Amino acid sequence: MNKFILYGILLLVYLGLSKSLSPTEFGVKYINNDEALAEIINGAPVSVILTDIHSTGFLIKTFYHKYKIIYGFQAYDEIIIRTSRSYTEKKKPFLGMSIFRRYKEDSRESFTPLPPGSVFIGNRSFGSWVTQNSQKVWRFFRVYRQIPKYLEWNDFVPNIQIYNEIIANQEKNIPYYGENKEFGIKGSITQAAFPKYFERQKPEKVDLKSFLQTYLKENFIN
């Protein structure tokens, strides 16, 4: 049989079966909008940070998001969610940012993309404003000193000006990437915190023959 015809047949088989044979989809929740995300997040105060975006499949792709869920009074969780291409494209610019938060006081919810942990800044249950180098900066209480580590803040220290910008942008539902745009897919803090994502984005050569051989070996040949 002509090898090009064989490759074509194998490709059709792959396209027809790849999604149904993907074991990673079993038991993984699916969302495609903000409201669906809010439904699977419990508790308050809570901040949901988009920490990774990944896709599987050669031509028919399945998209996944990884979230870090930061709670005020317990250790953080990490979950992987299956989602749509359109929702992925919508959220991609906000990698490393808080894309959902819920406030404890009134269970108010917000989907405005903000620096991670914005729900805790200014909340006097978690810290206080202190004067440092002639400006007011936010300092977590000692008992909550692990929260900045969970948030991957590195050397980021929010000041009162940043806090005011967070409040103003949230009221207008306008994304806020930080005083120097440190957060988001182009932000320096995000790129330092999640190097594996950016490493995967580097272009690589695709050998169709090797790909199909590997796929068949892994899925059909015992």
SSE inventory with pairings:
Layout: H1 3-21, H2 34-39, E1 46-56, E2 62-71, E3 77-83, H3 85-91, E4 98-102, E5 109-110, E6 127-132, E7 135-140, H4 147-150, H5 160-172, H6 188-193, H7 195-200, H8 208-219
Antiparallel strand pairs: 1-2, 1-4, 2-3, 4-5, 6-7
Helix pairs in contact: 1-8
Write a compact overview of the structure shown.
This protein has 222 residues and is α+β, with helices and mostly antiparallel strands. 33% of the residues lie in helices and 21% in strands.
SSE order, one letter for each helix or strand: HHEEEHEEEEHHHHH
Number of DSSP strands? 7
Overall shape: it is elongated
Lateral arrangement of strands in the main beta sheet: 3-2-1-4-5
| Radius of gyration of CA atoms, rounded to a whole number | 21 Å
Through-space gap between termini: 24 Å
Please outline the major beta sheet.
5 strands, antiparallel
Mean pLDDT: 86
Fraction of residues in helix: 25-40%
* Sheet/helix structural class: alpha+beta
Query: How much of the sequence is in beta strands?
Result: 15-25%
Oligomer: single chain
With helices defined by DSSP (H or I, 4 residues minimum), what is the helix count?
8
Residue runs with pLDDT of under 50 for 5 or more positions: 17-24
What report would you give on this structure?
There is one protein chain. Helix content is 33%, strand content 21%. The protein is of the alpha+beta class. α1 packs across α8. A five-stranded antiparallel beta sheet has the order 3-2-1-4-5. It has a two-stranded antiparallel ribbon with strand order 6-7. The protein is elongated. The chain has eight helices and seven strands; from the N terminus they run ααβββαββββααααα.
